[in-house]
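Record minuted for everyone:
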Amino acid sequence: MFHFEPKNSDMKLISKFIYNNPYDLLQIKIKCEKIENSFLTKDLFITMTNYCQNLTIYEGPIISNATKELKEFLISCKNLLILHLYSINNNLNYENFDNLLNEISQIIPTKLNTLIISGRWTITSNSLENFLKSRESLSSKKINFYWGSLVNYEGKFRNICSKYRKKGIVDKYGDF
């Protein structure tokens, strides 16, 4: 397990650590107040894709335009159980999470049982419904879906989650 929790963080340093440690990491948790060189989160996802195929938990930052890197990461890390993505946007503007959630919907990580989204994201009910609908075909389709207090969700999130809970797709959901 790699747990990193400084006040400031440089993604290049974290990527280098993962690259230089040949053993398989099963869990990566990065919690920081401020990320230096946030564009390097793309490099972090590339590094995890190449060196952490057995990863079961990722809790850390992502930027809104890292859709390609997230896609490759999800394809590579087939054992992923928990995915907690947070925005590293420190200003008052919200970033759109729909493209990232649509990428997760297309790859459909089969073992994923918990998705947590936190930080300054905006998510529409359409992308949430598409994500939950994409899980209908999985044999192990139940998922826990949580969102942080800063997430701006547009539409009737709780109604959609309740609807898919009745269908056996959502197990637990709500604010965390």
The domain at 2-175 is CATH 3.80.10.10 (Leucine-rich repeat, LRR (right-handed beta-alpha superhelix)). The chain is about 35% helix and 30% strand. The radius of gyration is 16 Å.
